[in-house]
Each structure stands twice: as C-alpha cells, then as structure tokens.
Amino acid sequence: MNCQAQGKILVAAASDLKFALDSVIAVFKKKDAGTVEVTYGSSGKLFEQISNSAPFDMFFSADVEYPKLLKEKKLTLSDAYIYGVGRIVIWSKKIDPSKEGMKSLLDPSVKKVAIANPAHAPYGKRAEEALLHYKFMEAVKPKLVFGENISQAAQFVTTGAADIGIVAYSLALSPNMLKENGKYFLIPENAHKRLEQTVVITQHAKGNALAQTFLTFVKSDDAKKVLAHYGFK
Amino acid sequence: MLDFEPFYLSLKLALATTVILFIVGIPLAYFLAFNRSRWNVLLEALVGLPLVLPPSVLGFYLLLAFSPQNVVGKFLDDFFDVRLVFTFPGLVIASVIYSLPFMIQPVQSGFSMVPRSLVETAYTLGKNKFTVLTRVLLPNMKAALITGCVLSFAHTIGEFGIVLMVGGNIPHETRVISVVIYDEVEAMNYRHAGVYSSILLIFSFLVLVSVYLVNRRALKVHYQS
Prior knowledge:
Chain A is built from 11 helices and 10 strands. Chain A is an alpha/beta fold. Chain A has 2 domains: about 10-85 and about 195-230, D-Maltodextrin-Binding Protein, domain 2 (3-Layer(aba) Sandwich), CATH 3.40.190.10; about 85-190, Periplasmic binding protein-like II (D-Maltodextrin-Binding Protein, domain 2, 3-Layer(aba) Sandwich), CATH 3.40.190. In chain A, the strands form 2 sheets. In chain A, strands 2-1-3-10-4 form a 5-stranded mixed sheet. In chain A, strands 7-6-8-5-9 form a 5-stranded mixed sheet. The longest helix of chain A has 14 residues, at about 20-30. Chain B has about 220 residues and is mainly alpha-helical. The N and C termini of chain B lie far apart (about 55 Å). Chains A and B meet through strand 2 and helix 7 of A and helix 10 of B.
C-alpha cells in the first residue's frame, strides 16, 4: 500500500517534539516545496511500529538507542544525526518548583507525580534516573502515574490530574503549556543520562528525495535556531 | 484550524464496515437463529466475544496476525502485496470483527421475532428457503436490520483502542476522528478536542434516538397487527 503523493513525507517523532518539530516544519514549508506530516508518540512505540513496517519515512527519536537498533535491523537509509540534546523539568501548577527545586517532589501536598512510561519513553527513563539520583525514588514511587508518552504526562499535570510532573523542557516552553501558568524547575543535567536525541531516514523513504531535503534542513542553522527556542542544545 | 478529513475517514471506515457486516451478517445471523445444533452456543459466544474482550486483546491478536513477520501477514505480503497493519483495509477488517456482534445480535433476534406462522405458510405454498428469506423474513424485520446497521456504523465511528493499535495514527490513512481527539488532548489543544468531541457526542445521541424511534414504531406495528 502506498498512497503517497509526490513531495510528501511522513515523519514519526517523539512526543517531546510536538511543538518544536511543528515549528521547524512551518519554517521548512516557507522555504521548500513539499509536505511533511508527523505522527507523535513515545519513541519506543514508534520504534515498534517502524520495525513492523509502518509507513514512516523518518524517525525523530528522543534518544540514541532506538535509531541505533533500527540501523542494526537494516531499516535505515541514513546515519543517525543528533538534532538536539533535551532537558527535563519539574512542572507544577499547584506548587512552585522554581523555588523549591527538586524538593518540590517531596512536598506533602503532592499526591500524584506524572512521568512518561519509562518502559518505552526515553523521557520517562531519564525522569526515573533523576529520581534515583536524588534518592527520591522510594518516597515518590507510590505516587507515580505514567503517561503513555511525555506529552500525555504533561497533559496530566496541565489538567491538574497530577499535582506535579517531570516533563520535557521543550514542552514546558511550548505556547500550549506556557498559557497554563505553571512553574518549572530545570533538573540538573548530571542527574540523568544525557538526553541526546537522534534522527534517521528509514527504509520506507527509499526513492523519496524529500526525506533527505528535510534532513538537510534539520541540520541547518534555521532549524537549529527553532530547536534552541524550545530548549534543545 | 479544524480539519474535517478525520471525520471523512471515520465515515468511510464506518460505511465500509457496515456494508461488509450487512452482507456477512445476514447469513450468519440466519444460521444462528435457525440452526438447532447444540454447538450453536459456541458460535454465538464466539460472535459475542468482541462485546466483552478488551480492545487491546483483540488489537494484540490482530497485530500478530497482520504483521508481515508472521504467517498470515507474510502470506498476504508475498502473494498479494497486501499489508494490513497501519493501512485502511486493515482497519476495515479489524472493525468488521470488532463490530460483528452489533450487527449479528439485532438481526438474529429479528429473525426469531418473525411469526413462525408466516414462515410456515410460505413453505407450505412451496417457496424455497431463499425466497422465504428475501420475501418473508427480511421484509418483516426491517427494524432489526436498521438497528443492526445503525449500531454497527455508530460503534465503528466510536472505535479507538483497536484503531490505535492496528492503524497506528497515519494521516489520511488511519488517523480517524477518535484518534485525532486523543492527539489534540495530548497536545493540550483543549478547544479543538472540545469541538470534535461535541460533534461526536451529538452524533452518537442522535444515532441512539433514531434507533429507539425505529424500534418503538416496529413494536407498535407488531402489537397492532
């Protein structure tokens, strides 16, 4: 089944990119002809789908591991490129993590702490590592609720379903989350494995030049500027 | 910026599913209604399974079956170049299975509601089974047929879990309206999610009202005659 019109690619992207990548694509559209469409989800789920021949032309993962595994399975057409290094933040509407820092997770008023599912979301895994790093795991574990991906974890805290959450910095800087008037604290980078995030062109893009064009654009300064705006380094 | 394509996709999926279910459903319901074998219960239970099974269980098995790495999926891929995971045809098959009881159960009870005397009279007049089905049974159970179609259609529009597992949120292919709402909520676009949701809410309500109206009228006719 191939329902692709000319000059169109379908990209699978980690949920932390929801707003950042949309902005990158908006800039790309102004310069080049061609449509880039995105499906967001947890990196692990998207990896599974690509492994099962889902029609994605590119894969923006939230880590380096999943693209590497795809390459080992010979399902990629390009080398993995690091498009950014992400960060995680503690985000809440209820208390002020920017004042209390890591300790805000232990605040007695906190009943539910939202993180992404560490089983298949790299941002959830990093959140877990940070909790272990500060030896908070034991205290926080009974309060953890898991979003299917980092965007859902963010949704849990913005709706107030969870009192506090560990979410992607890129989401905290997005307009949709800024308008929720929450406060956040940037978790120090040494508390978890570096959030290096890579992109690869996948097998499905064979013969579709737009994938390479878009990858070249992602490497450009214009795209880097947009990504930096969302907190990627 | 509201996008109406997902609605179109959902309608297309529901229409295809309902048409297939109508064609498959009548003979199957006929068999269930008139076959007196004691093994019937097993078949009945099998047809009713999607009512009680979590969509994730059905989705899991369908993924296994459809995957080109397994026997069925590989066969389809090798011999017919057909892929069912992440494609519209795959969604249609999944929906047919998922909505099966919503067609079969009303139609089956429709068959048993037609007065035996009518059927037996037709047989005595020397009509064969097919003529009895098309000239006596089906015309006397229109309410059941309409109910089956409307419920299958509406149930398919409302599908979410299976669609997400088997379809995988591919734009223009498997990104139906229920998936879009989930996406919008995740993106914290609550206004969009609200608009889409209210459209679906009104639609579902109207569907049920029409089903109850049809059934009420049918009951009246039933008792008056």
